[in-house]
Amino acid sequence: MTTELSRRRFADVLTATVIAAYVLVALGTAVSTTDSAAACSAWPTCATDPIVGSGTGDTLLYWGHRVAALVAGCLVLASGLAARRVAVGRRVTALVGCALVLFPVQVLLGATIAVGGPSVAGPIHLALAMAIFGCLLVALVFTLEEGTLEAESDRLTPTPNPSPDGDDAGGVSATAPQSAPRPTGRLVRLRRTIGAYLTLTKPRLMWLLCLVALAGMGLATLSGAALEPATALATLAGGVLAIGASGTFNHVYERDRDQRMDRTADRPLVHDLVPARNAVAFGVGLTVVAMTVLLTWVNALAAVLTLAAIGYYAVLYTAVLKPNTAWNTVLGGGAGALPAVIGWVAVTGRVGLPAVALAAVIFLWTPAHFYSLAIAYRDDYARGGFPMYPVAEGVAAARRHIAFYLGATLLAASGLGWVAGLGWVYGVTSIALGTVFLRSVVRQFRRPTDEVALRSFYVSNYYLGAILLAIVLETLVIGS
């Protein structure tokens, strides 16, 4: 009992250390992209005397970074001492020791930057901070896994009746779908048909993907390009039509498998509310209209990339990857990442590094987001014949990958702030929601239930939506 309690306390300390290391990385990128560094030209204080100096926003931000460094350093030291006292295994001890060795080097580099050292010290400083965070996160995952693997099978139970917004979000019905009664009134039939066609477009996915494109357009304005309202509206309209086309093709291809799954058993094609031939024609029509809008009011490159996104999701992901490999979510993440590049291209007519950085965030976020849903519905996916990662490799492996992809997402989001030159709004939002996201994933190890996994899935949506809104706010509201 004492050993178990000691490991639990060690995991608590290590969790706090990982969070502190992430906050340090995110604050560091915020400092490097603002004028905060210029506010402090000495070390360890911001002036030649020990007094803090003027309380400007830049100075406070820089001091916040230094306080975060102090807190993180103390926690790294505490984790290192605890790792020696608790039987945590060689891997964990080595990883925590790595962070303990790297941290003083990180401090020295920070001091070099503060007193006007060479410019190369900045990127090295950021890279070391990310390495420290990575070592600590992997150590935390290994520590948490020791307490969850033995309880895996009997604690994971199906979660009833949620209807999440996911890759294949649909309602929940009985296991064996029943034919829906046909309405008799003409107006009722019309409303039901319209609703069925709307369902084919997967409207629940639209808000987040449109927000990704809008964030891409906002980032493009940082390059000096002007965003015209007509361009923004046309890009979003074309995007909505393209998303609808992709979703429709997905419904058509998966209609037989959908009958076997509770989550998708009420889809329109399962109940013949829309004939498959009509659905295909509908999807083609949406694609044609989307291309017309983008070619007419945006530009050819944006149209080409949008068509590629439709093909990526409808063909590469739906028909090739999803039914055939456990890596379908990872490899299929590019479909959701492309709107970031499309948004940038709509404004500038070319591809830019900040857009690629935002696309990388979306790509890495996708497994961290979707694997939680796949854990909660692994039995449903197994009935449908889909080798989703938790089905093919097990829940423990999927949870581990959630943590690793989350760590990569958090680092990529910090890198995006550094590449794009985003400020304190983005930095604070990333820290706050990233911490919540990280805690929700840690809770999946502590309480390995489907309910907790599903809650983490929702938190991942809030995280991405929040940082995208922060980008839009900084670039299109504050920046304008």
Automatic annotation (TrEMBL):
Q: What InterPro entries does UniProt report for this protein, alphabetically?
A: Protohaem_IX_farnesylTrfase (IPR006369), UbiA_prenyltransferase (IPR000537), UbiA_sf (IPR044878)
Which EC class, in a word? Answer: transferase
Judging by the UniProt lineage, the source's domain of life is Archaea
* Keyword terms: Cell membrane, Heme biosynthesis, Membrane, Transferase, Transmembrane, Transmembrane helix
Annotated region (Disordered), positions in chain: 151-184
Q: Which GO terms describe its cellular component?
A: plasma membrane
Q: How does it sit in the membrane?
A: Multi-pass membrane protein
The free-text function statement in the UniProt record for this protein reads: Converts heme B (protoheme IX) to heme O by substitution of the vinyl group on carbon 2 of heme B porphyrin ring with a hydroxyethyl farnesyl side group.
**What's the family?**
Belongs to the UbiA prenyltransferase family. Protoheme IX farnesyltransferase subfamily. In the C-terminal section; belongs to the UbiA prenyltransferase family. Protoheme IX farnesyltransferase subfamily.
Q: What is this protein called?
A: Protoheme IX farnesyltransferase
Question: Lineage of the native species?
Answer: Archaea, Methanobacteriati, Methanobacteriota, Stenosarchaea group, Halobacteria
Provide the gene name from the record: cyoE
